[in-house]
Amino acid sequence: MKNIAVFTSGGDAPGMNACVRAVVRAAIHNNINIYGIYRGYEGMIKGDIRPLTSQSVSNIIQRGGTVLKSARSDDFRTKEGRQKAYDQLKSHNIEGLIAIGGNGTFTGAAIFHQEYGIPTIGCPGTIDNDLYGTDFTIGFDTAVNTALDAIDKIRDTADSHDRVFFIEVMGRDSGYIALRSAIGGGAEMVLIPEKPDSLENVIERLKHGWGRHKRSFIVIVAEGEEIGNAAFISQKVKAQLPELDIRFSNLGHVQRGGAPSALDRVIASRMGLSAVEALLSGKTDMMVGIVNGRIKFTPFAETFKKKREQIAEMIKLVEVLSK
Ligand code: F6P
Known about the structure:
The protein folds into two domains: 3-139 and 260-307, Rossmann fold, CATH 3.40.50.450; 141-256, Phosphofructokinase domain (Rossmann fold), CATH 3.40.50.460. 43% of the residues lie in helices and 18% in strands. It is built from eleven helices and eleven strands. A seven-stranded mixed sheet has the order 3-2-1-4-5-10-11, sandwiched between helices. It has a four-stranded parallel sheet with strand order 7-8-6-9, with helices on both faces. The longest helix is centred in the middle third of the chain and has 22 residues, at 140-161. The chain is elongated and about 70 Å long. The relative contact order is 0.17. Residues 11, 72, 102, 126-128, 170-172, 223, 256 line the site of 6-O-phosphono-beta-D-fructofuranose.
């Protein structure tokens, strides 16, 4: 293998740049030509593939976002799109791929690998932490710390005014950001897609807390929660409990930006180096993760199909510690 390419795809995540840097430097260390594919699968289809050097990735380890840009490609979901992508890779003599992204990226990578057999290794880059086969995805720790910073500030004003706050955090299909920031922020309640709840139950728990003389509440709502978004829930609760002073806040895309935390920089660097070594040793169709501190490889198909099992324990933490 002489020519490999790296790309970032799906929602950007802090630490993606640290991973790109590690991939580029590891490839150069192994005397391999390394190319960057810009805007993920979109750039693969369009042939936006450029050589990278050690200098191309100088001074990026500390930067949020991704210097390779990112996109969610509808064309790559089609057979014609993937054929174009394959033709572009062939014309650039790309023999191996390193994909940095989340479950959408790996779903695409698995299909592409099945169809064309180009050796591919994935690095988990998503703030959602919703991939099986790694304790942490790149960007998750930074996103949680960003959310916590905002939650702490909201708690100050919630406490001063004796208010109930519904705070929405990201996670379309996943409650990991919500759970971790609820634990870290000392929230009274957390609502996540993995454990469907009801409006009645939320109201009951608020009443119960009020009865115990709690005067301010923080409820963390994951974006993908089933009852509705934070704005909708706060409106419904207000209608039934007019005596409570209720507000909501949606933290939004602020969670995706910013300088990566130390943890994200370190795991991104480890994963990037391991991905290159794995590709060169003949591994393919797998994601590199870190489980209990050690590098572990998991087939792409398992990363987005299998579920992790810590949810119940984390919900219990929120419930017991907020009493
Ligand atoms: O996958 C990361 C993520 O931030 C999710 O938490 C969120 O649901 C989604 O991306 C938002 O995507 P977009 O920025 O494309 O609207």
